[in-house]
Amino acid sequence: MKFIILALAMLLAISFVAAHNPQFPVSIQHKLVGSWNDGSRGGEVFAQFDITVTNDGQKNIKQIVIGTDATCRLRDSTSIWNVQVIDGPFVDFLILPSYQDINAGASYTFGYIIHGTAQANLFVKSVIYA
């Protein structure tokens, strides 16, 4: 149990540092679309979010790796769209589809449905410029 708490604390610290990393001029905005109780799943609460990734830099982004943590508990494997999921025990990383770039000053939107109503912690891990 101590190991899990320590690991979660480390992930939180990493996400805080990465979210405030000026190395990547990228912003991530969450927008709550809605939430509901799902009677077919024992009254569990779910929420849908739209995520907008904005390239605030002057170079086009060819690929971006967005990290997350245990807060990204998707409803099921079909509950995320417009990104590719690279996962381990949780959803670990999100990347753009291979055909998608984000031009300088432009944005890209994807979405997910998650357990509960709190948004998932998302942070930029790395950026590859075109």
Write the layout of secondary structure elements.
Layout: H1 2-19, E1 26-38, E2 44-55, E3 61-67, E4 80-81, E5 84-87, E6 91-95, E7 107-115, E8 123-129
Antiparallel strand pairs: 1-2, 2-7, 3-6, 3-8, 4-7, 5-6
Q: What's the number of domains?
A: 1
The N- to C-terminal Cα distance equals 43 Å
Please state roughly what percent of the residues sit in beta strands, choosing from under 5%, 5-15%, 15-25%, 25-35%, 35-45% or over 45%.
over 45%
Strand order of the largest sheet: 1-2-7-4
The class by helix and strand makeup works out as mainly beta
**Per the principal axes of the C-alpha atoms, what is the gross shape?**
elongated
Poorly predicted regions are 6-20
Mean pLDDT: 87
The Rg value, from CA coordinates, equals 15 Å
Output the CATH topology.
Answer: Immunoglobulin-like
The appropriate CATH architecture is: Sandwich
Order of helices and strands: HEEEEEEEE
Counted by DSSP, the helix tally is 1
How much helical structure, as a percent, in the residues? 10-25%
The main pleated sheet reads as:
4 strands, antiparallel
Organism: Cavenderia fasciculata (Slime mold)
Protein name: Cellulose-binding domain-containing protein
GO molecular function, one term: hydrolase activity, hydrolyzing O-glycosyl compounds
Signal peptide: 1-19
Describe what this molecule looks like in 3D:
The protein is mostly beta strands and 130 residues long. It has a single domain, classed as Immunoglobulin-like (Sandwich). 14% of the residues lie in helices and 45% in strands. It has 1 helix and 8 strands, in the order H-E-E-E-E-E-E-E-E. The protein has one helix at 2-19, and strands at residues 26-38, 44-55, 61-67, 80-81, 84-87, 91-95, 107-115, 123-129. A 4-stranded antiparallel β-sheet has the order 1-2-7-4, with no helix packed on it. A 4-stranded antiparallel β-sheet has the order 5-6-3-8. A hairpin with a 5-residue loop joins strand 1 (26-38) and strand 2. The longest helix is centred in the first third of the chain and has 18 residues, at 2-19. The model is unreliable at 6-20 (pLDDT under 50).
